Amino acid sequence: EVEYRLLEHEQKKERYLDFKRELDGLRGRNKEINVERQRRREESMREMVAEQVRSKDDKIDALNRERKRLWQLRRHQQNEAYRAREQVKGEIMRQRIRSKFDSKALEKKLQQLMAQDVFTEKILNQSTSMPALRAHGGSVQEAVEA
To answer: What DSSP designation does 132 have?
Structure first.
């Protein structure tokens, strides 16, 4: 009977050790799964941050391009305004030299100069940073006054 108990004890001990090995293996596997899950989570966060950075970089580039385009447009408008002033001054001087003043001709010349695209809002319709004021039923002047 003592041998039987010893045998039973040995079998219990073996079952316990098998159970312990299996439990340790499952714990190790669970740890590996958690590590892999954490790695995927961190990778996903890195990708999300990288996409946000790319998106913001694209927006910054677009804003810089628009700023440069508006600056060039402003410089062009200044040059055209200077040229238009000089033409009007020249027309006034011609009329003064001839001693023949014609305000209608001067007004026509001025309207002709001001009808150029550079002095109208057509050129701003291409802008992505300017709201489409005409679409809202108002003019630029009305929007400025508002």
So the answer is: -
Instruction: Give the residue among 107, 137, 139 at the shortest CA–CA distance from 121.
Output: 139
The whole model's pTM is what?
0.53
The 10s digit of each residue's pLDDT in 83-92 is 888 988 888 8
User: Alpha carbon 26 to chain centroid distance?
Assistant: 49
- Residue 15 CA to residue 21 CA, distance in Å, equals 10
- State the Cα–Cα distance between residues 126 and 72, nearest whole angstrom: 14
List, as one string, the DSSP characters of 51-96.
Answer: HHHHHHHHHHHHHHHHHHHHHHHHHHHHHHHHHHHHHHHHHHHHHH
What does the pLDDT look like over 85-112, one tens digit per residue?
898 888 888 888 888 888 888 888 888 8
CA 25/CA 7 separation, integer angstroms: 27
Distance CA 85, CA 92 (A): 11
